[in-house]
Each structure stands twice: as C-alpha cells, then as structure tokens.
Amino acid sequence: MKPVNIGILGLGTVGSGTARVLQDNAAEISRRLGREVNISAVCDSSEEKARTVCPAAAFVKDPFELVQRTDVDVVVELFGGTGAAKDAVLKAIENGKHIVTANKKLLAEYGNEIFSLAEQKNVMVQFEAAVAGGIPIIKALREGLAANHIQSIAGIINGTSNFILTEMREKGSAFAEVLKKAQELGYAEADPTFDIEGHDAGHKITIMSALAFGTPVNFNACYLEGISKLDSRDIKYAEELGYRVKLLGITRKTDKGVELRVHPTLIPECRLLANVNGVMNAVRVDADMVGETLYYGAGAGALPTASAVVADIIDICRLITADPGNRVPHLAFQPSQVKAQPMLPMDEITSSYYLRVQAKDQPGVLGQIANLLAKENVSIEALIQKGVLDGSLAEIVILTHSTVEKNIKTAIAAIEALDVVYAPVVMIRMESLHGRNG
Amino acid sequence: MKPVNIGILGLGTVGSGTARVLQDNAAEISRRLGREVNISAVCDSSEEKARTVCPAAAFVKDPFELVQRTDVDVVVELFGGTGAAKDAVLKAIENGKHIVTANKKLLAEYGNEIFSLAEQKNVMVQFEAAVAGGIPIIKALREGLAANHIQSIAGIINGTSNFILTEMREKGSAFAEVLKKAQELGYAEADPTFDIEGHDAGHKITIMSALAFGTPVNFNACYLEGISKLDSRDIKYAEELGYRVKLLGITRKTDKGVELRVHPTLIPECRLLANVNGVMNAVRVDADMVGETLYYGAGAGALPTASAVVADIIDICRLITADPGNRVPHLAFQPSQVKAQPMLPMDEITSSYYLRVQAKDQPGVLGQIANLLAKENVSIEALIQKGVLDGSLAEIVILTHSTVEKNIKTAIAAIEALDVVYAPVVMIRMESLHGRNG
C-alpha cells in the first residue's frame, strides 16, 4: 500500500519534533498502521532548516502552495497563532485536505468556523496536541468517555505556571524570582504573559468545555486570572491548612449554565491533582457513569507534543485506509507484525529489593549479612536495624540497589543458612518509577 | 438512520450496568453518535431478571441462538469466564457479529485464537472494559500513544488488593482482618483468591503487554505473586523509609526480553501511583517520545465498567456507520447537536474561598469581619490569625464554605471599607474536587 503523504507547515519546536518522531519511529509506526507515512513537503521561513530537518521533502515557500499540492494528503499546521495559520488551514480544508494541528489559539478562537467548513468538505481536523501536549485527553473526551454525561473538568494545563507554583511552594521564593529561573531554564518565554496570565490555559479549557458539553467553542466567555499577583505567603498559609495552590482551568455544567474559568485555586493536598508538580500537566474529568478519571503527562515540549501530532496523523491514516472494520488492529499492531518476543523468567529480571531479616541480636550479624550480599554483587542503598523484638531477636531492614533477581535469591538463601538468622527472609521488590521529570 | 442492534450475553453486575447506561444516557449517546443504540436481545439464566432489566428486548435462553439472530449487529459478552463465553464469542465471530467484551480472562488466555478468527471474518473485538474498568487505557495504548515505542507499563489494576493495602497502611491492620472488612463492604468476593493472588491483575497486564510491544498474548509467561502473605510490619517499615507497597502489574521491554509480572512492590511515596488509594486503579505508561503518562479512575463497579463497554459499542457503531471521514465528530457531538448553553458570568459561579485580610491588631476586628461575611450568607470553614507582622498588623486567613461569587465580592468590599483593615483583601478560589471515592 502506498505511503500517506504529509505536508508540514512550520518547523519550529513542535514541527521539528514531529519530523523526528516520524523518522525515528517510522518502523514502529508502520508496524501499527500497515502503511508508511511520508513527509512530502514542508514550509518554513528558513529553507536551510527545512533542508536539514526534512532533507527528502520538497521545500515550499508559500503555505498556500503547500496546501494545494497533489502530493499532500494531510496538512500538519504547526505555525501557531491566528494569522497565516488560519488562512492556510481554511484553504487546505477548501482543497479537501485533512488537518492536524497543535494550535489551541486558532481552535479556541476560530474553531466553529473551521469545523463547520471541515464538515461541508468532509475532512477531518484533528487536534490532540492542542490540549495538554502528549496526554491523549481529546481522545478520552470524544471517544473513551462517550457513554457519559460529562459533568466537569479541572486541569493543570499550563506547564510554565505549574513549574512556577511548584518552585514557589517548595522554596518559598517570590513569583518574580521563580519566573526568572523558569526563563533561564527555557520553561518560560521572554514575554511570559500568555502562559502566566492564563490565556494559554483559557484556550485549552475552552476547547475541552465544548467537547464535554456539546457547545460551540466560546473563548470570549472564559474568565482568565493568572498567577503573577500570587504572594508566596498565601501559598504557605494554604499549605499550613492542608491545601496546594494550582492554576486550574475549570469548566462545569450547572443547572444555570456553564462555568468556564482559569484562576489560581486551592485544592486539598490529598488529591492527585495537588501532587502534579513541575512542568507536568493533568486533567481530571468527572462524568456521571464512570465517576472521576484523571490523565497525566507532559503538557509541552517538542517530543511529547509531537507524540500527539503523530497519533492524530495515524488516526487519519487509519481512517482513509480502506477496510474501516480493521481501523485499529486488535493487538495494536498489524496482525502480520505481531511477533513473539523472548519472555524473561523471573530470575533474569532487574529490580531493587526490600529485605527484612530476623536474626539473633549479637555482634557481627550485620557484617555477615552485608558480606553475603556483596558476594552476589548486591549493593545496599539503606540498612536500618529495627527495635529488638523480645530481647534477643533483631530485625534488619535492607533496601538494595538494582540487581538481577537470581543474585538476590542466591544471597537470600545464603543469609537464611546463617546460624544467627531465623528464616525466611522477607523479600519485596521495589520500583523507583523514575520518569524524565523525576 | 436506523438504530444499531445490540445483544447482551449476561445480565450480572456489568450487564445490568450496561443496560442502565444505554437507557439512562440514550439521548446523550445519540447526540454523539447520530443514531440510536437498541438492546434487541438478551440472554441470562434468569428470565425474570432479563424482563426487569431490559423489558423491550427479546429474551433468549440459548447464547448460541442470540449470536445468530439477524436483529443483533453487535454481541456484548458479559458472562465472564472461559466456558460458555468462549464458545459464544467464537460462534458470534463466525456469524460476522462484532464483539464487545469485558472478559480479561478470556482474552488473556484465548485472545490469540479469538483475534485471529476476528481478522478472518473482518469483525471488531473491542475490550476496553477488560482492563482497568472505566479508564480508557486500551484506547490510549492502541491509539493515543501510537507514535511511540512503548517501553514499560506499571499499573494498580486490582481494586480489591489496593483497598486492602490502603487499609493495612492507614490502620496498621493485619491482612486477614482487612480482607474480612473488604468482603463485608462487597469489595472482595467470598473466595477472594482470584483478586488477592494476582490472577486478575495478571490477566490485565498480559493484555496490556501484548498491546504495548506487538506480541501475542501470553498469560502463561506471567509471574504471579499476590498480597496474602504481606505482613503489615513490612508496610510500616517501607513507609518509614519513604515508600508505599502496591500490588503492581509490570511489563517492560528489555534488550534480553519482555518482563511480565505481578507482585507487591515498594514505590517512592512521591510518585502519583503511590497515592492511588482505596479501590481506585491507575496505569502508568513510559514511552520513548511522550515520556511518562498516567491514567487514573475506577477499575471496577457496574457503572464505570459499563462506561467502557458502551464506549466500545459507540466505537463500533461509528465505524459501521457510513462516512468514515466523520467517524468522530470534531466537537464530540454531531454538528446538528452542538448547542450553545448559557455561560455563567463569574459573579454567578459557586466556589469556596481563601481570604487573607491584613488588619490592625486590636480587639473586635475578627468579629467585625465575621459579621460582614455572615451578612452575605458566607459561612466560615476555618479562620486562623497569623503572627502579627510588625507589632500592629495582624493577618487573618479565612476559608469559607461554598457560596456564590457575588456574595463573597460584596463581603470583601465591605471588609475593605472597615477602618481597621488595610485593603486589598487577598481572595483565592478553592475547589474540594471530591470524587465518588473521596
């Protein structure tokens, strides 16, 4: 089957990321899709950049030319903003091209016009990347939760603001100071207004509100209040009372009408949303049948956002490929591509371990145990001797660094064989679950 | 457009829930779908129950009869187990019926056979409800993250076990004691083996592993270790060291092969997964482009599971309805069903509030402020006087109960007008984000 041809408008952070995902993961993507995705044309202000990022694609200066090319099936709009992006998207739809966009501003402000034209022209406009970056929240709202009346949504949907609030809380620093640090780290723009005054979150919650309640997008109705006036004193007092302050986008259907608002919000510290820190995003949805669900992940960045852009491209390719009955393969990959892999026996897995050893309370026991672990190349992260239980019995709790399971088992057998140890040794596996963001 | 006809096998907890969701949310579902979903036939051991739950549907005694009926387009298998369920599903596929099932055991043990037959017969087998109840994790793995190499999955995917572990940690109780409580509350079966020994979690992680890595389902390769031998002492020691113990299903692709395992696991308390409590489920996915994402919600229960069953029914209906280009409407609802709603101005929203008032440190100030709040019907949840700042200035922090925003604004204006108060009063909104599960 011949490749699907993609034209990309704009090779900034997300555009370059999209090209990289399509290139680096080409094999895995075609294992899932059953056909290849080819970048046939790109448009960017820098021809040099275009040649570097997508050497095999045609370079096109004029966006209007790209959206009319016969070798472009899907237009991926990553210009951002509502100028050239809007004109190019409308023109592309006129020409019967399917659209993928990450442009929240465009959809929050002109979505009704764009979707209406798309309906007339029977093309798809996909926009997973426009809300919460790599988190598949649009798919959850439109498909995964389709059996429900959605009741409300509350989201941490601006990573810059969440990074600043996290730092203000953890370090007690003032807003201006943390903003400067965020700018140095590249988490905030030179002009940070759009992020810190709630505009970006407002665009995103406006789009989600429309999807939740079946209303037109209505950004003008969205109340915006940012975090620039927050005093770190209030964050501290809130914490003393058991709350965290987060910039939330909130939308809720009430008997009187729809609430649509962005503002700093106190939430109880026990909620998962309260524990979403740094630049991470999360969206909580309340719906009548499923109750509360929450979706967490990176809300920005080249590759996470590109992950959503490319998922949308795959969605469109699956639909424009014949055989709708096989749109999504049962096991996620094309049947011919489902391949057995060696399955690791437990002895071969890698993990850290928690051990609890009961031993006689006498000198030298700790050393003996440590030596037996060392003999199997198991290194110790922490070791604490717990209170003696009945005058002669000591409990020793050990956390190990990562090791292969057969090593820990050998060490445990040796420890259990010690005269001073009462078998069995308790062993529980540990996972640090480190992410890119810690 | 004529309705899609559904035949349901089994009217137990999930079957009855599915019937209820389809009936109670019929209007919202057809707003999204553009056609109606009709339960045309049901099969259950109790005819009386069938007549009560689905009075308009034909009652069928024999599952083989149901799966051959011409008035059934989609067979919803909710028998559970691998006896009649397996035979009926295979027969239904033979007859060209699309399948929706919540049966994790069936798919983890016989998925390869079922999917292979489905491919031959060109029918869809949907199974969102088989893993993590109402959380749309299958959709995320097959579609939302399709641009990625998935690297690993770690999930709290058995609510019974998570409830028991949460209680053991919070109350320091022994396993047997908490199990009894869970049975009384209906969170554990009379024979709890399937849940507490990891079988159920094993079925679910087996299915997710296949979807993540493009391998056949291989339940035999899954290592199972449950929670019945856990000592609450180890949970306490783990907590002292900064860890929580969770029953995780884990699968990971390594250079040597695929890890597939279920066991109690220590995880750092700062991770979101460590803070998933009670019967709730959560699945964390690590993938090369998007990084870590996490999906949280109810993993069991009639209505949350039915939410996933009905989402699958809607997915199938969208695909077998003509016009694949319009499979999922842009704004989630059919264009003709997108309707403006009154948008509430901020004065009309309902919220709780955090207030910080700076005032002269003299008697009677607190009372004056409290009276002004009471006058606007704002009741106080907490009030603390913070340390005096410079000998004459006091800071008063107030948390209010829920009220209408215009009332709090009127009260604030009155407070700011007091001689003893230094304006402005700091006001931050609060949201409790209570869920069904607290």
UniProtKB/TrEMBL annotation, chains A, B:
Which cofactor is essential here?
A: a metal cation
What PANTHER family is this protein classified in?
A: HOMOSERINE DEHYDROGENASE
Q: Where is the active site?
A: 204
Q: List the GO biological process terms.
A: methionine biosynthetic process; threonine biosynthetic process
Per UniProt, the keywords (alphabetical) are:
Amino-acid biosynthesis, Metal-binding, Methionine biosynthesis, NAD, NADP, Oxidoreductase, Threonine biosynthesis
Binding-site residues, NADPH: 104
Cite the EC number.
Answer: 1.1.1.3
- Output the lineage of the source organism: Bacteria, Pseudomonadati, Pseudomonadota, Betaproteobacteria, Neisseriales
Residues where L-homoserine binds = 189
- Which organism encodes this protein? Neisseria dentiae
A single GO molecular function term of this UniProt record: metal ion binding
Identify the residues that the record assigns to the ACT domain, covering every copy: 354-429
Q: In which pathway does it act?
A: Amino-acid biosynthesis; L-threonine biosynthesis; L-threonine from L-aspartate: step 3/5; Amino-acid biosynthesis; L-methionine biosynthesis via de novo pathway; L-homoserine from L-aspartate: step 3/3
Going by the record, the broad EC class of this enzyme is oxidoreductase
NCBIfam families from the entry? PRK06349.1
CDD domains, sorted: ACT_HSDH-Hom
Q: What is this protein called?
A: Homoserine dehydrogenase
InterPro entries (alphabetical): ACT-like_dom_sf, ACT_dom, Asp/hSer_DH_NAD-bd, HDH, HDH_cat, HDH_CS, NAD(P)-bd_dom_sf
Q: Identify the residues that bind NADP(+).
A: 9-16
Q: Which family does it belong to?
A: Belongs to the homoserine dehydrogenase family.
